[in-house]
Amino acid sequence: xxxxxxxxxxxxxxxxxxxxxxxxxxxxxxxxxxxxxxxxxxxxxxxxxxxxxxxxxxxxxxxxxxxxxxxxxxxxxxxxxxxxxxxxxxxxxxxxxxxxxxxxxxxxxxxxxxxxxxxxxxxxxxxxxxxxxxxxxxxxxxxxxxxxxxxxxxxxxxxxxxxxxxxxxxxxxxxxxxxxxxxxxxxxxxxxxxxxxxxxxxxxxxxxxxxxxxxxxxxxxxxxxxxxxxxxxxxxxxxxxxxxxxxxxxxxxxxxxxxxxxxxxxxxxxxxxxxxxxxxxxxxxxxxxxxxxxxxxx
Length: 298
Hints:
Layout: E1 2-6, E2 10-17, E3 31-37, H1 39-49, E4 53-57, E5 59-61, H2 64-76, E6 84-86, E7 91-98, E8 103-108, H3 117-122, H4 124-129, E9 132-136, H5 141-153, E10 157-161, H6 170-173, E11 178-179, H7 183-190, H8 197-207, E12 211-215, E13 221-224, E14 229-232, H9 246-259, H10 264-279
Parallel strand pairs: 1-4, 1-9, 2-7, 5-6, 9-10, 10-11, 11-12
Antiparallel strand pairs: 2-3, 7-8, 12-13, 13-14
């Protein structure tokens, strides 16, 4: 099972606080931690931990944060030979997490802004050899489109995670095989101001012929293959301490299950279990499960 990932890498600087400061307010008593992140890298590591052979394309800076990324991928068994080093700082995100696990994130893209479609061209053979391409929106829009088109041209299925929320040109949307938005991202893709899953799915279905997995937080998820629509109940976490990596854990697990040929319901339950595992752990990387962590979900 081979998965190619075109996406982001960066470092997260996390502040844990009892509440968010108001405008102009300085709030003390927070706890600080520093760790790797970026949706592309997170999903690549998540898929590798669940048994996939994963190759990653992203851009990093020639700095200590970029070097830490390369060491992380080596440790996690992710092929990073295509990762490019550019003349900019490695992406950095500042993450504010409240006691109930809710988070707010600000990102400085840095090196990711220098990732180009030409880099995707150099990754084309890896995409062609993969069973699935995963791509997310934390990279320039033209790189997303180039990755999707490259996969389609070479007969590789595409999982598009539209996070952060940003639209996709219709000609590229037509090439997506699996779409995995959350409610906010679905609102952006449809232009609708509603959280009704059925309304959003109906609108997404007008634009995307793909299978859709809509994640709805504590309401679980919905899967829609164009014929059937099914609600997947949430998997209850033992505790909720940090929701930051839940979507990445979900996407990685869904990708692996889909590559294994599991039906949508089983794949979504597996992915939901991965998301539940993630929110019970502080920071993203510790919250990405290994196969043995999801055994009961099989």
